């Protein structure tokens, strides 16, 4: 009986210490940390996505997960343009795009925003610009504040030490820096040693985002089994869900009439957002994607 009472007393004391510990955190550091957390949010330029992200992107790593050839590369170029227009210095590492293809995406999207009712093809836009010095001057004036803030590097894999050096260099002239990573996909069937290497790489990138206070957007293409597992909410062999703070899953297309659905026409995409640093562990939102001008808007 005496032993039981002592156990109850110990449990009660431990519980009290736990409660006091949380109160002490609330009383001292919580308000400052939470205020800073929301003040540092970066708008995505899309209201639905901002709401799902509790106000926008933080200085953290966001792994963009999907299938090969999906909307993620267009989304990266969309974010590059949006961030650059809002004064961010954007470092864009890519293994799938070139400076030429990224610029074409930005160009056709810009034209679409100016002349949405016309929606000309990319070749028609290039022809229009090349045949009119006045139009060329107009586009150069409009795109100058965007393109001067985007730096493109073509690499299959990012050297993290070099990445840190670039961040430090950019921050000397502009404290607002964002990183976009589109590395080469790992092989489908990986040996354990390579899988561990990729896990370490993810953790390193995740750490860099927080330590140097930069939002990092990183394309991660998983093997079919892992993609199906993470979509269903299960662990992946890469353990990406524990190695990065945030996941944005480009899960599927939503079409009200599948017989009329075409990737040449606008369609709705479903995003599943999972975060290890937010009280809202899973959020779902929808965006409308216009594939011809590489344009995103709220669904």
What does this structure look like?
The protein is of the alpha/beta class. The protein has a single domain (56-298), classed as P-loop containing nucleotide triphosphate hydrolases (Rossmann fold). Helix content is 48%, strand content 20%. It contains ten helices and nine strands. It has a nine-stranded mixed sheet with strand order 3-2-4-5-1-6-7-8-9, sandwiched between helices. A hairpin with a 6-residue loop joins β7 (267-275) and β8.
| Overall radius of gyration | 23 Å
CATH-level-2 architecture? 3-Layer(aba) Sandwich
Report the portion of residues in β strands.
Answer: 15-25%
**Globular, elongated, flat, extended or rod-shaped: what is the shape?**
globular
Helix/strand order: HHEHEHHHEHEHEHHEEEE
- How far apart, in Å, are the first and last alpha carbons? 64 Å
Short description:
With 299 residues, the protein is of the alpha/beta class. Helix content is 48%, strand content 20%.
Characteristics:
299 residues, Rossmann fold, nine-stranded mixed β-sheet
Spell out the blueprint of helices and strands:
Layout: H1 2-39, H2 47-52, E1 61-66, H3 72-85, E2 89-94, H4 99-114, H5 122-131, H6 133-147, E3 150-154, H7 160-171, E4 177-182, H8 192-211, E5 216-221, H9 224-231, H10 240-243, E6 246-254, E7 267-275, E8 282-290, E9 295-298
Parallel strand pairs: 1-5, 1-6, 2-3, 2-4, 4-5
Antiparallel strand pairs: 6-7, 7-8, 8-9
């Amino acid at each position: 009986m005496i032993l039981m009472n002592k156990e109850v007393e110990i449990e009660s004391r431990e519980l009290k210490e736990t409660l006091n510990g949380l109160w002490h955190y609330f009383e001292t550091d919580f308000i400052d940390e939470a205020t800073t957390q929301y003040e540092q949010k970066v708008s995505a330029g899309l209201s639905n996505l901002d709401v799902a992200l509790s106000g926008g992107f933080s200085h953290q790593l966001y792994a963009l997960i999907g299938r090969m050839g999906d909307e993620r590369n267009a989304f990266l170029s969309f974010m590059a343009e949006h961030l650059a227009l809002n004064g961010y210095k954007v470092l864009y590492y890519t293994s799938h795009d070139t400076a030429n293809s990224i610029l074409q995406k930005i160009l056709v999207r810009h034209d679409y925003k100016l002349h949405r009712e016309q929606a000309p093809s990319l070749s028609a836009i290039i022809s229009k610009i090349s045949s009119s010095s006045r139009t060329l001057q107009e586009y150069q004036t409009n795109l100058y504040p965007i393109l001067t803030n985007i730096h493109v590097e073509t690499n299959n894999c990012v050297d993290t030490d070099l990445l840190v050096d670039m961040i430090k260099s950019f921050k000397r002239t502009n404290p607002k820096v964002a990183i976009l990573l589109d590395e080469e996909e790992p092989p489908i069937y990986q040996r354990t040693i390579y899988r561990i290497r990729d896990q370490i790489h993810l953790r390193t990138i995740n750490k860099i985002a927080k330590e140097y206070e930069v939002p990092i957007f990183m394309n991660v293409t998983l093997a079919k089994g892992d993609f199906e597992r993470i979509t269903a909410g299960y662990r992946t062999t890469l353990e990406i869900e524990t190695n990065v703070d945030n996941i944005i899953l480009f899960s599927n297309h939503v079409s009200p009439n599948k017989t009329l659905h075409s990737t040449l026409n606008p369609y709705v995409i479903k995003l599943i957002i999972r975060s290890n640093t937010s009280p809202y562990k899973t959020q779902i939102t929808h965006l409308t994607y216009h594939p011809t001008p590489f344009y995103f808007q709220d669904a």
